[in-house]
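haha ok so turns out i had the wrong file open the whole time. this is the CORRECT one, sorry everyone. sequence first:
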Amino acid sequence: MPFKDPEKQKASHAKWQKNNPEKAKATSRAACRKWRAKNVERERERMRRYHLEHREAEAQKRRAWRTSPEGKAWMKKYRLEHLSETKARRFMGHKVESGQVVKPARCSRCGLDTPRLQAHHENYRRPEEVEWLCAACHGLTRRAARRSANQPVVGQGD
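then structure:
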Protein backbone atom coordinates (compact mmCIF):
# COMPACT_ATOMS: atom_id res chain seq x y z
CA MET A 1 0.00 0.00 0.00
CA PRO A 2 1.74 3.21 -1.15
CA PHE A 3 1.87 6.19 1.17
CA LYS A 4 0.31 9.48 0.18
CA ASP A 5 2.48 11.41 2.61
CA PRO A 6 6.24 11.11 1.81
CA GLU A 7 7.14 11.93 5.43
CA LYS A 8 5.10 8.98 6.71
CA GLN A 9 6.78 6.76 4.13
CA LYS A 10 10.23 7.88 5.30
CA ALA A 11 9.30 7.31 8.93
CA SER A 12 7.89 3.87 8.14
CA HIS A 13 11.00 2.92 6.18
CA ALA A 14 13.29 4.17 8.96
CA LYS A 15 11.34 2.09 11.48
CA TRP A 16 11.62 -1.01 9.27
CA GLN A 17 15.38 -0.44 8.89
CA LYS A 18 15.76 -0.10 12.65
CA ASN A 19 13.79 -3.30 13.32
CA ASN A 20 15.49 -5.30 10.52
CA PRO A 21 19.12 -4.08 10.37
CA GLU A 22 20.58 -7.14 8.65
CA LYS A 23 17.82 -7.32 6.05
CA ALA A 24 18.08 -3.58 5.43
CA LYS A 25 21.85 -3.83 4.99
CA ALA A 26 21.56 -6.73 2.53
CA THR A 27 18.77 -5.00 0.60
CA SER A 28 20.78 -1.79 0.42
CA ARG A 29 23.91 -3.60 -0.78
CA ALA A 30 21.97 -5.50 -3.42
CA ALA A 31 20.31 -2.31 -4.63
CA CYS A 32 23.68 -0.54 -4.84
CA ARG A 33 25.23 -3.40 -6.81
CA LYS A 34 22.26 -3.43 -9.19
CA TRP A 35 22.44 0.35 -9.70
CA ARG A 36 26.22 0.23 -10.32
CA ALA A 37 25.79 -2.57 -12.85
CA LYS A 38 23.28 -0.45 -14.78
CA ASN A 39 25.31 2.77 -14.49
CA VAL A 40 28.90 1.62 -14.98
CA GLU A 41 30.15 4.72 -16.78
CA ARG A 42 28.37 7.11 -14.44
CA GLU A 43 29.79 5.33 -11.38
CA ARG A 44 33.27 5.26 -12.91
CA GLU A 45 33.10 9.02 -13.50
CA ARG A 46 31.80 9.63 -9.97
CA MET A 47 34.66 7.62 -8.46
CA ARG A 48 37.21 9.36 -10.70
CA ARG A 49 35.98 12.77 -9.50
CA TYR A 50 35.99 11.61 -5.87
CA HIS A 51 39.57 10.36 -6.07
CA LEU A 52 40.73 13.55 -7.75
CA GLU A 53 39.07 15.72 -5.10
CA HIS A 54 40.39 13.61 -2.20
CA ARG A 55 43.80 12.73 -3.64
CA GLU A 56 45.87 14.27 -0.83
CA ALA A 57 43.73 12.88 2.00
CA GLU A 58 43.90 9.39 0.49
CA ALA A 59 47.68 9.70 0.07
CA GLN A 60 48.01 10.67 3.74
CA LYS A 61 45.94 7.64 4.79
CA ARG A 62 48.14 5.34 2.67
CA ARG A 63 51.34 6.85 4.12
CA ALA A 64 50.01 6.47 7.67
CA TRP A 65 49.03 2.84 7.04
CA ARG A 66 52.38 1.97 5.45
CA THR A 67 54.25 3.25 8.50
CA SER A 68 51.92 1.55 11.00
CA PRO A 69 52.98 -1.81 12.51
CA GLU A 70 50.07 -3.51 10.73
CA GLY A 71 51.06 -2.03 7.37
CA LYS A 72 54.74 -2.92 7.79
CA ALA A 73 53.85 -6.51 8.72
CA TRP A 74 51.55 -6.85 5.71
CA MET A 75 54.18 -5.46 3.32
CA LYS A 76 56.85 -7.81 4.70
CA LYS A 77 54.54 -10.81 4.25
CA TYR A 78 53.60 -9.67 0.72
CA ARG A 79 57.26 -9.28 -0.31
CA LEU A 80 58.09 -12.78 0.95
CA GLU A 81 55.08 -14.30 -0.83
CA HIS A 82 55.92 -12.47 -4.09
CA LEU A 83 59.70 -12.73 -4.02
CA SER A 84 60.31 -12.85 -7.78
CA GLU A 85 58.15 -9.76 -8.35
CA THR A 86 59.90 -7.89 -5.53
CA LYS A 87 63.34 -8.77 -6.90
CA ALA A 88 62.38 -7.70 -10.43
CA ARG A 89 61.01 -4.36 -9.22
CA ARG A 90 64.09 -3.67 -7.11
CA PHE A 91 66.41 -4.70 -9.94
CA MET A 92 64.81 -2.25 -12.36
CA GLY A 93 64.57 0.46 -9.70
CA HIS A 94 68.33 0.23 -9.04
CA LYS A 95 69.08 0.28 -12.78
CA VAL A 96 67.02 3.45 -13.26
CA GLU A 97 68.50 5.14 -10.17
CA SER A 98 72.07 4.34 -11.22
CA GLY A 99 71.45 5.62 -14.75
CA GLN A 100 72.10 2.26 -16.43
CA VAL A 101 68.53 2.30 -17.74
CA VAL A 102 66.85 5.49 -18.92
CA LYS A 103 63.07 5.72 -18.70
CA PRO A 104 61.54 6.85 -21.98
CA ALA A 105 59.38 9.96 -21.99
CA ARG A 106 56.34 8.29 -23.58
CA CYS A 107 54.17 5.27 -22.89
CA SER A 108 55.06 2.46 -25.29
CA ARG A 109 51.35 1.64 -25.86
CA CYS A 110 49.42 4.90 -26.12
CA GLY A 111 52.28 7.39 -26.52
CA LEU A 112 51.24 9.52 -23.52
CA ASP A 113 54.02 11.92 -22.54
CA THR A 114 54.40 11.53 -18.76
CA PRO A 115 57.30 11.46 -16.29
CA ARG A 116 55.50 8.80 -14.22
CA LEU A 117 55.91 5.73 -16.43
CA GLN A 118 55.78 2.29 -14.84
CA ALA A 119 57.91 -0.71 -15.73
CA HIS A 120 55.70 -3.65 -16.70
CA HIS A 121 57.35 -7.06 -16.37
CA GLU A 122 55.74 -9.66 -18.61
CA ASN A 123 57.97 -12.28 -16.98
CA TYR A 124 59.45 -11.62 -13.54
CA ARG A 125 62.21 -14.16 -14.16
CA ARG A 126 63.62 -11.75 -16.75
CA PRO A 127 63.71 -8.48 -14.78
CA GLU A 128 65.66 -6.58 -17.45
CA GLU A 129 62.83 -7.05 -20.00
CA VAL A 130 60.27 -4.34 -19.29
CA GLU A 131 57.68 -2.38 -21.19
CA TRP A 132 57.33 1.24 -20.09
CA LEU A 133 53.63 2.04 -19.62
CA CYS A 134 51.51 4.85 -18.23
CA ALA A 135 49.33 3.94 -15.24
CA ALA A 136 46.20 3.49 -17.39
CA CYS A 137 47.86 1.14 -19.90
CA HIS A 138 49.61 -0.76 -17.10
CA GLY A 139 46.28 -1.32 -15.34
CA LEU A 140 44.64 -2.50 -18.57
CA THR A 141 47.54 -4.88 -19.23
CA ARG A 142 47.41 -6.34 -15.73
CA ARG A 143 43.64 -6.81 -15.81
CA ALA A 144 43.81 -8.49 -19.21
CA ALA A 145 46.54 -10.85 -17.97
CA ARG A 146 44.52 -11.76 -14.90
CA ARG A 147 41.36 -12.34 -16.95
CA SER A 148 43.20 -14.65 -19.31
CA ALA A 149 44.59 -16.57 -16.33
CA ASN A 150 41.10 -16.63 -14.71
CA GLN A 151 42.42 -14.91 -11.62
CA PRO A 152 40.44 -12.34 -9.67
CA VAL A 153 41.41 -8.73 -10.34
CA VAL A 154 42.69 -7.22 -7.09
CA GLY A 155 44.45 -4.10 -5.81
CA GLN A 156 47.36 -2.22 -7.28
CA GLY A 157 49.86 -4.97 -6.53
CA ASP A 158 52.26 -4.92 -9.42
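DSSP finds seven helices and two strands in the chain.
again sry for the mixup
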